[in-house]
């Protein structure tokens, strides 16, 4: 089984990547293959409702080939589950994340429906929970089972990599990964425990 993890941050190995790496590491420990894709800093335009994809469903892709959308779309056909991570910009997922996900789901929905998905958001201070809900809203109308955790899948940090110091945030990522692994094994009829693995809670408030 394979999980595709997509970081919509333009910053290479930023905090979104840090959070997704924690998820991937845990999935690997569970025996699940992973691939992390960083979309990079090239722009991703929004859906223009041209409906080319609806007229060519056998193509499983967006009409526009000039950005990362179709690269990810092709990989989605082979993936069993997804994690989409986004940095928070102005209290929302960054624009590229929204453009990317909307075009993927509209142009190649069959590659996503009925496959588990988790949203991840990172921010410096505020807006992660609203952003997390925004991402989930898109998956919730695609028949995609949403993978949750012990808390919303959010982590805090400003400079690249700082999120690794968010002890509770990183634990939230690991718990979500265990839950996703457990769900995938149940779906695919593989042996697994009655309940997913769970660590003792490591809380972390803003002011320690
Ligand atoms: C344009 C812009 C807007 C931002 N808006 C917010 C915000 O509303 N709330 C917040 O807490 N952080 C905000 N940030 C900070 C980022 O969310 C934060 O640095 C995050 O760790 C970036 O993730 P990355 O390293 O994966 O890119 C903003 C950053 C940028 C560039």
TrEMBL record:
<keyword id="KW-0285">Flavoprotein</keyword>
<dbReference type="InterPro" id="IPR029039">
    <property type="entry name" value="Flavoprotein-like_sf"/>
</dbReference>
<dbReference type="InterPro" id="IPR051796">
    <property type="entry name" value="ISF_SsuE-like"/>
</dbReference>
<feature type="domain" description="NADPH-dependent FMN reductase-like">
    <location>
        <begin position="1"/>
        <end position="156"/>
    </location>
</feature>
<dbReference type="InterPro" id="IPR005025">
    <property type="entry name" value="FMN_Rdtase-like_dom"/>
</dbReference>
<protein>
    <submittedName>
        <fullName>Flavodoxin family protein</fullName>
    </submittedName>
</protein>
<keyword id="KW-0288">FMN</keyword>
<dbReference type="Pfam" id="PF03358">
    <property type="entry name" value="FMN_red"/>
</dbReference>
